[in-house]
Amino acid sequence: MKLSVLIPVYNEEDSVKQLLERVLAVPVDMEVVVVDDCSSDKTWEALSSIQDPRVRVFRHDANQGKGTGICTALSHASGDWVIIQDADLEYDPNDYPKLLQPILDGKAQVVYGVRNLAGQRLFFRLGNQFLSVVTSLLYGTRVSDMETCYKLMPREVMVHLNLQPSRFQIEPEITAKLLRQGHKICEVPIWYQPRKAKKLSPWKDGLPALWTLVKYRFGDVGAGSSKQ
Fold first, then answer.
1. Residue 186 near residue 108 (C-beta atoms within 8 A)
2. Percent helix, strand, coil in the chain (nearest 5)?
3. Where are the alpha helices (H) located in the chain, listed in sequence order?
4. What is the pLDDT of residue 203?
5. What is the pLDDT of residue 223?
6. Which domains, from first to last, does the chain contain?
């Protein structure tokens, strides 16, 4: 069972090499697909110095957003399973085995890593909690952390979500389409350490996230069902 780690990166020169070291140290059969979203700092130089054969690096010619970076990474992935990984060190790749365990036990096909948001700034924490509550109400199932980065599923399932290029709307889009297509989400607690400086904006990204949840609840989800 091979895991594809999808890493969208934008202006993370201070953390991306350390993040990759942590990912590659995890005892899991994996490939790592990194997409530099046209960083304006030295991120590309840092990525270009990586020599590990498990790592493949791609670059956008223009900044297009996290969601587009994930779509590009997915198009190059070849593993049986995929997981999204941010490059800012908020998440610990050592949680991969924990997230894979329900799959190995035959209890789940889609696994979300659920964060403890106590360390987040109040406005961000309330926003995350609100979006998770809205998701649960709209889709009739409990989702504790809709915005979590750690979403693990079969590669073919993610491919059939027909994800659209976007900024941070990728998180609600993935969740909405999974639930609309009948997939059940298994939740596993993970380590999480929020950083102070965030690229997302509560208003610029929060409102589109809310609209994305509503849009895919009552509109066309694109690809046909691939229920597992």
1. yes
2. 40, 15, 45
3. 16-24, 43-48, 66-76, 96-104, 122-139, 155-159, 170-180, 206-218
4. 57
5. 46
6. 3-218 (3.90.550.10)
Regarding predicted confidence, which is higher, 223 or 173?
A: 173
110-114, strands of its sheet edge to edge = 55-59, 30-36, 3-9, 81-84, 151-154, 110-114, 185-189
Per the listing, tokens 């610990």 go with 92
Q: How far is CA 98 from the centre of its chain?
A: 16
* Main-chain dihedrals φ then ψ at residue 136, nearest 5 degrees: -60, -40
How many other C-beta atoms lie within 10 A of the C-beta of residue 21?
12
Count of C-beta atoms within a 10 Å radius of residue 140: 8
Query: In this model, does residue 147 exceed pLDDT 60?
Result: yes
Of 17, 61, 19, the C-alpha closest to 37 is 61
Query: Strand pairing partners for 112?
Result: 151, 187
Q: Tens of pLDDT along 165-216?
A: 887 899 999 999 999 999 999 999 999 999 776 655 655 667 889 999 999 9
Three-state DSSP at 2 gives coil
- pLDDT for the residue numbered 226: 39
Whether pTM exceeds 0.85: yes
List CB contacts of 153: < 8 A, sequence separation 6 or more.
Answer: 81, 82, 109, 110, 111, 178, 183
- What mean pLDDT, rounded, does the chain reach? 92
Q: What is the predicted pLDDT for the residue at 166?
A: 80
**Nearest by Cα to 172 from 204, 223, 141, 211:** 211
